[in-house]
Amino acid sequence: MTYALAPHPIPSIPVAGSDLRFAVRRIYCIGRNYADHAKEMGAEVDRSAPIFFMKPADAIVIGDADVPYPSATSDLHHEVEMVVALSGGGRDIPVEHALERVYGYGVGLDLTRRDLQAAAKKKGAPWDTAKGFDHSAPVSALRPASEIGHPDDAVLSLHVNGELRQQTRTSDMVFTVAEVIHELSKFYDLAAGDLIFTGTPAGVAALQRGDRFEAELEGLATLRGTIL
Ligand code: MN
User: Fold this and answer.
1) What spacing in Å lies between the alpha carbon of 89 and ligand 1's midpoint?
2) Which of 72, 88, 171, 184 could disulfide-pair with 153, CB 3.0 to 4.6 Å?
3) pTM of the model
4) Which CATH superfamily is domain 12-151+164-226 in?
């Protein structure tokens, strides 16, 4: 096959402790998956209707890389989240088989143009420009589940300039990882290479140029970077 233009590079994430890379196909995100964050946003948790949105695969920023402050916002917010990487997929995946599709875990930031999201919510408009912008998905190296298992009660935290901004345990998720995969597979044919950002706890706040962030999934994954 001959392409009209050179094919674009495949976005990929390092696998910790190896020279392997995880090729990213899609990035799914779930909203309102921690009750304390839903509350701080003035929203209700609704177990009957999970909120999903997407980011482009090339929105990932690999750990220790700098993140440019995005255009068109004056209220860039951090949302620290556990990130799940899939090794397989399908549709209508039963909860009890969902974890068999997990390749591994990392930690990431669901960066958000909060001012644009608030305006979109008011108008009932889509969240794409608020959530799916360039460099909106910094993510750590992945740890394979074959090595670490499934961190269903790990401490998830974010420090900015050394100050603790967000902290929770992954056991506080409204939908567990298995339930998120099950729910998402009702809407999409999931596949190897998909990432899922699993929601953020309370404490979301603004990032400024020059801020240093450190996101951690306790003992498993760390993501550091600077907002430029
Ligand atoms: Mn989020």
Assistant:
1) 22
2) 171
3) 0.98
4) Fumarylacetoacetase-like, C-terminal domain (3.90.850.10)
